[in-house]
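Priority: medium. Attachment 1 of 2:
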């Protein structure tokens, strides 16, 4: 699994999105990408703001299957 978000000294993240723009818009743990046993990848939004997958919003608390070449916007 890979965690996306904003790293702090108490919160380690695999992909620190605070380095890419306005950090105040990114949750400490914005999302998690997981590989399922069947080979599918899913992204779970664990933040307050939506994550966009191929232009579709995935709201906090929801998950979405990632396809080959999916565009992920945070």
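Attachment 2 of 2:
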């Amino acid at each position: 699994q890979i965690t996306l978000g904003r790293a702090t000294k108490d919160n380690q993240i695999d992909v620190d999105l605070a380095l890419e723009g306005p950090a105040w818009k990114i949750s400490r743990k914005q999302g998690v990408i997981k590989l399922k046993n069947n080979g599918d990848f899913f992204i779970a939004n664990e933040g307050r703001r939506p994550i966009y997958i191929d232009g579709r919003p995935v709201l906090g608390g929801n998950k979405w299957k990632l396809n080959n070449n999916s565009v992920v916007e945070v």
